[in-house]
Amino acid sequence: MYWLLGVTPAALPRRYTRRQDHAMDFSVLSVPSILQNAAILTVLVAFIGYALTFLSAHMLARRRDKLELVNKRLNELYGPLYVASEAGNIAYRSLLGKMGKTQSNPVLDSELSEWVLWMRTIFIPLNDVREKIIIEKAYLIVEENMPQCLLDFVTHVVGYRAVLSKWADGDYAERRSTIGWPPEFDVYVRRSYAALKAEQTRLMHSAFSRVWKRMRTRWGRRAPRSD
Question: How many CB atoms lie within 10 A of CB 151?
Fold first, then answer.
């Protein structure tokens, strides 16, 4: 370009040559470098998206597993225990009201026939149900160690079997189990049931759970028909 003007670059003002040099610096922004930066950015965004998806799926899976365990504990252990215990307490209060007493002990001779009837038809069957649940579903207990009140309850039920055997032989001298009723049992069952129900509600209504349900619904709609 300088030869058209009939001058050499050395004869041009220094300001003009600097401007030309700066203009030439834009050559670093070549097409290959731009494409390379775009490719790196794309890979980075994809990796971040994958990481977020993986973490979300992992958290959803953990919450799903927790909810399944809570449901299993409620359905197979604490729920049946709670229902049977509440039914037993209602029946016991009803019997005391009928007998005009605030506690069953001692069982008087005039109350014996009524006491034996309720024990054989109501209380013993409810106790057997709860004993069976505790023994067969012990692996679902929340605590790391077996609560003492559950052991005391099973022992109480076993003690009544000896009493029932004597009643079958016509011996009513013993009217109650020699191993007393554990008062902590009902408290434990109510507290555990309430805590699990609260945990179940929290897990079912969490944000991650709602997202998981929406994802499953979408997948279900997109699933191809097999017929």
Answer: 12
Cα separation, 112 vs 107, in Å, equals 6
Contact 42, 50 (CB under 8 A): no
User: In a 10 Å sphere around its CB, with 0-12 CB exposed, 13-18 middle and 19+ buried, how is residue 69 labelled?
Assistant: middle
173-227 pLDDT per residue, tens: 999 999 999 999 999 999 999 999 999 999 988 755 565 566 666 666 555 544 4
Q: How many C-beta neighbours within 10 Å does residue 95 have?
A: 19
Q: Which of 198, 89, 185 is nearest to 146 (CA)?
A: 185
Q: So where are the chain's domains?
A: 2-43, 60-203
Q: Report d(CA 227, CA 222) in Å as an integer.
A: 15
Output the pTM of the full model.
0.67
Cα angle 135, 141, 146 (rounded to 5 degrees) comes to 70
Q: Residues 6 or more apart from 9 whose CB is under 8 A from it? A: 2, 17
Share of the chain above pLDDT 70, in %: 66
Tens of pLDDT, residues 58-111: 555 667 889 999 999 999 999 999 999 999 999 999 999 999 999 999 999 999
Nearest alpha carbon to residue 186 among 107, 71, 87: 87
Please state the separation of Cα 217 from the chain's center in Å. 22
CB 80 within 8 A of CB 129: yes
Place of tokens 């509600």: 201
Residue with tokens 């927790």: 66
